[in-house]
Amino acid sequence: MQPARMMRESGLVARRVSAQLVRPSVLGTLGLFTGVIIPFGWIEQGPPICMFKLMTGMPCPGCGLTRSVVALLHGDLTTSLHFHPLGVLFVLLVLVLAIVDGWVWWRAKRPGAPVRPPSWLLERLAVTPAPWVAVAVLMLVWAVRLPLYVVGAWVY
Q1: Mean pLDDT of successive 10-residue stretches along the chain, which has 156 residues
Q2: Hey, CA dihedral for 63, 69, 75, 78, is it positive or negative?
Q3: CB 87 within 8 A of CB 72
Q4: N or C: which end of the chain has fewer CB within 10 A?
Q5: CA 113 to chain centre
Q6: pTM score, two decimals?
Q7: How far is it, in rounded angstroms, from Cα 66 to Cα 102?
Q8: In angstroms, rounded to a whole number, what is the distance separating the alpha carbons of residues 33 and 108?
Q9: What is the pLDDT of residue 24?
Q10: How far apart, in whole angstroms, are the C-alpha atoms of residue 36 and residue 22?
């Protein structure tokens, strides 16, 4: 076999393998696992990483969401809700997406089962009102939190 053909075929195999690993079940699980192993003090005491807040001085709609998720994954519900009230819903959403995608991925391993691309679940969700509802809820929470932040009653 020619070297160029071998390289081309190995590249195709690598793309297929990486495409299977870049899916909601794998990325969601890795993200939650990362949140569990990161010490909460690093997230709580670290500098802000939000570009919107760094540029404007004001928190964005998602400010505090990372700290909220990490606090929840460390078992601190009160602190999680303090940092961002949608952190619990975010973790639940990631868990549901990971479980559903993992179930479909596992079922697809059966002989004769239809093979779905890794992004099938996200593509299906994108055509529903779900993304717009998520944006609306995020903006509503921001509209409540922003005035509290301005008067010093809410810490991001």
Answers
A1: 60 65 82 91 81 89 91 94 93 91 81 72 86 95 90 76
A2: positive
A3: yes
A4: N
A5: 28
A6: 0.77
A7: 24
A8: 25
A9: 79
A10: 20
138 phi-psi bin (left φ>0, alpha ψ -120 to 50, beta other): alpha
Q: Which residues contact 91 (CB under 8 A, 6 or more apart)?
A: 32, 69, 72, 73
Looking only at Cα atoms, what is the longest distance across the chain? Answer: 71
Residue indicated by tokens 């404007």 = 56
Residue 128 confidence (pLDDT): 92
The distance from CA 151 to its chain's CA centroid, rounded to whole angstroms, is 30
Residue/partner pairs of 86-91 with CB below 8 Å, 24 or more apart: 86/137, 86/138, 86/141, 90/65, 91/32
Closest CA to 87 of 78, 96, 99, 97: 78
Helix (H, G, I), strand (E, B) or coil at 85: coil
Asked whether 118 and 19 are in contact (CB, 8 A), the reply is yes
